[in-house]
Amino acid sequence: MRSIKQPGAPVAERIQWVEARGRAFSFTLQAGLPLLEAARRGFAAEGFAGGVLCFGRGALRPFGYVMPALSKTSENAAFYSDTFRPSGVTRTRLGSMTLGMRDGAPFFHCHGLWTEADGRASGGHMLPDETDVAEPFEVEAFGIDGAMFSAELDPETNFKLFGPVAAARTGARTTSRAFALRLRPNQDFAGCLEDFCRAQGIARGKIHGGVGSTIGARFTHGGVTEPFATELAVTAGTIAAGPSGALEAALDVALIDYTGGMAEGRLIRGDNPVLMTMELVLEVLG
């Protein structure tokens, strides 16, 4: 399987996880607010301090983002581009967000694809402090209680990354058992989730959110993304018994690579290793 050498030594625990309770809900992001504050308010209204969300068509202005890029030093295996700030209203096509805490304040990690006002199609990593909601739009969220994503320096990748930590219960209404997860580099995305579910006795699960990167990508429709550095959003995901009875993860994603190439589709199981990180919430259905 493809692998990329990271600047730091791999830690023994390859999946960070915290068990929690959660609930799916939808809400509308308010226009005129920073995207971060609009998202925070939507979760807070349901009693949650954080969680994950996905969205389709939305409108952002002002908007700041970066794309994946090659690293100019040996301090990171890959890095970010300079900041892009397109003028006018940017229209999102899809995106996925993790809402958590960084340096004691709310923060998000959000990847998506969009079309800028001049018609340019692009994608990447949205910047919380440079992005506002231009028009109201609806999102599908999953709040978690008893866990939170917290940004901490990760010695392996030398980035400050979201990982799940235990958190005090807020008393929010929840409907299901859930796990907040972070997958570490150089392990297959699908296989990692399948192994985790087997270890936890989970027969059926649904993925909510899903923000991270893979080392290129190989799709079931035959498409291949060769450039190794990507920004990826999960658009749908399930883990359930396949035809053989063994657990199989079905992972639909959208991504942009460091050359600007975009791709969407279902990942081939066993051939899509994580590059830097993969954050998501796994809802237990059975």
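the 2nd protein, sequnce then structure:
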Amino acid sequence: MITPEIKNQVNEIFKRINSRLEHPYAAATYVDVPDLKEIDKITRENCEDTVNDLNFLFEVDLYLADRYTSLGRFSISANYNFDALKVADLLSNTHHHVKAIKGDMAELFSNLLRDRNFYVDDDCKDCLGLAKHTGLYTDEELEHIYNRRMQKRRNIKTDPVEMSPEYLAVIDEVEKKIAENSKFKMGFCFETWELKEIYLGEKGIKWSSPASLNPRVMFD
């Protein structure tokens, strides 16, 4: 059960993460990943099939999806957004009086479609079917969100290796090494990508930068 003590424990981790942000809209970094994993672990170990617990899990899933999106790990954010959609389905179909989640549903569904299509084309019919099953929006409203998002899946290509377990197992270490060895501390994409390609190569992972995958696109 998600007790007040559990909520306080999770909130303390939230505060720790927020204390590292340079501004309220700052992206997450590799430093935040252990805390994000701890939030996930605590919540799932204690969550039960009750309205209060599921509402808390829903909010945690949305938070984790947002943080991993800002970190550029879209395969992970896709999983959290899909989990949030499953929780929304449980809340709407098991507890019909719970409608507070409806306000988040449209953005959640759109973000899920974006994340699932970030690396490869995915028709996301399972997402559409589950969203319809919640009954929180009409089929026509969801079809509109679906069609609008699917018409603009990706503007640039990104290496699908970023979805692989091998990549995800080492990327925190690689990003830490980049931060320690980068000459441009304010960030410079070409240097970052060059170092990332080198350090991933040392791990036996061949990774291609957005610049090499999109030769006609100008990056700065």
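The mean pLDDT is 93. The chain has two domains: 4-150, 160-213.
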